[in-house]
Amino acid sequence: MNKLLSLEEMASQIQNGSTVAIGGSSISRKPMAMVRALARSGVRDLRLIVDVGGPEVDLLIGVGAVREVIYAFVGFEFLGLAPHFRQARQVQSVAFQEWTEYTIMAGLEATIKRIPFMPTHTGLATDVLRVNRSFGRISDPFGGPDVVAVPPLAPDYALIHVNYADAQGHGVILGDSHVDALCAKAAKTTFMSCEHVLSSKDLRTMKATAQILRIYTKGVVEVPWGAHPTIMAPEYRLDLEAFNTYLQHCVDANRWDQYVREVVLPSHADYLAGQGGVASLTARLKPPSSGGPSTQQ
Amino acid sequence: MKRGADMTELTYGLDELMIDAMARELSGEVLVSSVTAFGALAGLVAKAFYAPDLALLSSPESGMDVDITPTLSLGQFFAFAQSGVAIGMEEAFDAIFLDRFRIWINPAQIDQWGNVNISAIGPWDHPKVALVGSRGIPEDTSHLSKLCYYVLDHTRRSLVASVDFRSGAGNSNERRQTLGQIGSPSVLVSNLGTFDFKGPQGSMRLRSLHPGVDVTNIIEATGFTPAINPDDAIPTTPAPSAEVVAFIRNHDPLNLRHMEMNKGNASGSLLEQAYARELDLFPSTAPRGL
Asked: Which among B135, B195, B81, B186 has a CA at the least distance from the CA of A123?
């Protein structure tokens, strides 16, 4: 079965009000090309589920596409706080549920295993359980102390970006696996973008840290530089220049409108041209020694 | 506190003193994860000088036992280039649940009971400053028998009587009732001294003073009164050896520890410099097309 489709075809299937789980982790392997396509589609009232979120959450809040965020973390790591997330938290323009890294995983796992909750000690004696009423408390049927009950997290869609995939929807990840496989399995519909489409035979030779089985994948989009400006190990590093441009445009509404117009609304090909083109990106983010012998150290 | 003035006579910096103090807290055969330069360097010093069996990671979830140098964003590339063990999130959390995991956490606020906050300044639902969210700290504080915290700006804003939000659990009746003996805050290394939680009812207690710091400085900079033994009983934080200092300098060629110390100040240019240099320094682990 051929599951290849375009970014725009993917985005057009996601309806207003959908619950969307997004893979990756803060500034690593975020499906940014798919997220920008979603922003372009004009979809509204999304509920986002992220374990460790970053620029994808911030951008979708910035374009007004988000109704609620379920998260353990949203930030830009050494580049600081996520500006639109921070603003939305402070003025309460979006609903937020603070979870934790493991409980997000447990909630997805509960959906995958089709059980009503997952038990854990996580969160006891913290304020996460006070401000987040989604969690329950259950007594131990075997006589021990109470435990926390984590309810299922059931995304309508999952968006993940991987290194390689075949047209049938089998994907492999070469860097850190994050929570992408859980998102892909828990969602009713999973869209996967990839740096490169390979034949199924070639894909099997890849030494993967995680695999996404094609039985869980609805559509595959081939998008080189699809995680840009985040880290895509082992192919390209974080683009500091692009992050700085983003942050500089979050300071007021005019600059943000300009950013949306110039960076978010253009097609992926035009986006790459706007970043200086593939040659410039390669020079900045992949070293000249790429694949060749080391000349230093 | 005139930190720089106090320490100009010394052959090491405050950063190196703190990193060495942090390293001395790590022991055994456990995974050590880090998301900061100070945490990464503490792990490296510990493994080289104090605790050779530590299993250091190059990213929060991969790169066990590879040859690591702290970088801005190349941790996964080290793991890939050296075929480091890919841990994954499930494995990382199993190590937390099994208490075979340590991490140095840098909270925005820590209080006298060892509760820590990285979620919000002000009320959680209408914060004055929204921070990042609790991340994996609740997992750590619900399961680890040793919880390690550090702050680089020991002031009444960071060491507070009571945190605005408990992202991580300190000592409390609630902890005793719900978690029993599982987990507890253990140590805080600040830029003024080191502390444990062996004061009354598990409250914070001054353990050592950094060179040039006295008890008055601590009291002035702290938003509560930490438990303090009589003056003559408070030792000075041990100086790092010349070998440790040389090791730290060798293992931080990008100067990330100073970038972290200067956050919100001169960090912009330090960041640009580190970013410009990291590929040149580590061509063998550089990003590559396949």
From this structure: B135
